[in-house]
Amino acid sequence: MDRFQIERMISELSTLQSNFHLLKTQNEYLENLNEANQTKIKNQSKNLAEAQNSLRIKNELIKEITEKMIILKVNAEKQRENQMTQNAVTANLRKRIGDLETKITNDDVNRYAFLGKIRRLEDAVSACKIENANMRKIFEMEQTRTNEEYGNKINELNDEIRELNDRFKKNIDADRSSKQIDEDLWRTCSEQLKYIESLKTKNEENLMKMREVSLKQNETMKEWSKTKEQLKQIEAEKNSLIEQLNILKTRNRNDLEDTTCLICTTEMKTEEHDYDSLPKCNKCKRRYHIDCISQ
């Protein structure tokens, strides 16, 4: 085996080692990617299991509520036969009224919190408007100054171009020194054109800053509108709760007034009579004994 073959084999061995390291690196990358995918699949499976568990709990809750509604319906039928005492009904109504008043108080607290958030958003909007106004003033000042400089440079450039054209027309057969002066004038004009381009770029940057401030202000206004909608929903829920509270208070007052017979003015014994089946006056809604009306 000659030297050339040995060097070729060494080169091939080096190439194989490089390919081996490359394949090893790719294998490690694929293993890491596979592990990440397995972790992602596990997390998704876990989330799916949690969602299924949540759905199962909700279904069980719906089933339980349905069963309770059936039980409540049966109890309502039984209640017509075995009327609860007025004191228990009154206590239950007072408890519900207290719960509703507590809920209304909590809604008021949440409402004040939303009002505070709205005030902060209004302050942020005002700050954005002030910043926008300041940026606009700076932009207008910069624009005015830039336009003046731009116009002055253009006028100077036009004057120099006219001068250069005049000189070209008058000095067609001028010597080399005259040509050098003309080249200097052209170079000066080119530099001024570059400066004008830089002024245009600066103007575009100022316009971009103005657009960013406007976008920020629009986002703040959207968040403020969303918070106002939430406040309207809370107001609507509060009004609904107040309406329910008034209904319960009215019902409680009517129940308290409807405890004595309209004719004999004695207390109605709800445990001795089917209270709901007793006749009542169409005007005052008070009930009376059947025996009393027959007399």
From TrEMBL:
The keyword Coiled coil applies. The keyword Coiled coil applies. Keywords: Coiled coil. Residues 34-82, 140-174, 224-251 form a coiled coil. This is RING-type domain-containing protein.
